[in-house]
Specification:
Layout (H helix, E strand, L loop, with lengths): L1 H116 L4 H73 L3 H25 L36
Length: 258
């Protein structure tokens, strides 16, 4: 009888040990499942952040290419207008010079005819010869002034174009730096939002504050309006344009900046 009781007690103890082991295994399994779920959620968040950043970068690149294309088309249009205006002024000056030369020739022919009709009037002949010489001299001066004015206008235009190209290159570099700074801010903001470790999160926040200050300075230099790390909001194109300085006189027929 005592042996049966002892056996029953041992069986109960063994059963309790089995139940405790099952409980411990269940807790371990639950803990591992929780860790695995957290790890999967973290990887999913990282993938989502990477996908969002890649989409933002693609969108920014497409926007930048579209703006560059519009700028090239606008520059080509303005250049075509300028060339047409210069060519129109040149042709007008040449036409005026030809008309004056034809008028001088007609006057010369009339004066020669008058001399033939009245050879005896030596004084009249001398006057006519002087007049012809003066007309020819005036025609030469007019032609020289037209050519000189055209050359000066072309030289001014080339200097202004070189200056504008330099300013556009400097502005493009500033915009590129601003875009890089804004991209860094966006990456740090995503990292801060996804970071669980408070110490690392504080370090990332310090880096983000520094990056924001640098991005603000870069945006100000580049003339970009908006929040760092995001596309600027604007109703039109706020990119500063290089101003053309007019240096020609108002009486210059080839001046294209009046």
């Amino acid at each position: 009888m005592s042996e049966q009781k002892e056996s029953s007690v041992l069986f109960s103890l063994k059963e309790l040990m089995n139940l405790e082991e099952d409980r411990i295994r269940g807790e371990e399994d639950a803990k591992q499942a929780k860790v695995a779920a957290e790890d999967e959620a973290r990887r999913a968040a990282e993938r989502a952040a990477r996908d969002a950043e890649e989409a933002r970068i693609r969108s920014e690149e497409e926007r930048r290419r579209a703006e560059e294309q519009r700028a090239r088309e606008e520059a080509a249009r303005l250049e075509a207008i300028r060339v047409a205006e210069v060519e129109k002024a040149r042709m007008g000056a040449e036409q005026q010079a030809r008309m004056e030369a034809m008028n001088a020739q007609q006057q010369h022919a009339l004066q020669i005819e008058a001399l033939k009709r009245d050879k005896g009037k030596k004084q009249l002949r001398n006057i006519l010869i002087g007049t012809i010489a003066a007309v020819m001299a005036i025609g030469g001066v007019v032609t020289y002034l037209v050519i000189d004015s055209s050359n000066k206008a072309k030289a001014r235009e080339e200097a202004l174009q070189q200056e504008n190209r330099k300013k556009e290159e400097e502005l493009s570099q500033l915009k590129k730096k601003a875009e890089e700074a804004n991209s860094l801010v966006a990456n740090l903001e995503s990292a801060v939002a996804n970071e669980k470790d408070q110490r690392k999160k504080a370090e990332l926040q310090n880096q983000l504050d520094t990056a924001k200050a640098e991005a603000d300075a870069a945006n100000e230099k580049a003339g970009v309006k908006g929040t760092p790390g995001r596309l600027p909001t604007k109703a039109g194109d706020d990119t500063p344009k290089a101003k053309t300085i007019c240096t020609c006189k108002s009486t210059d027929p080839l001046c294209d900046c009046l």
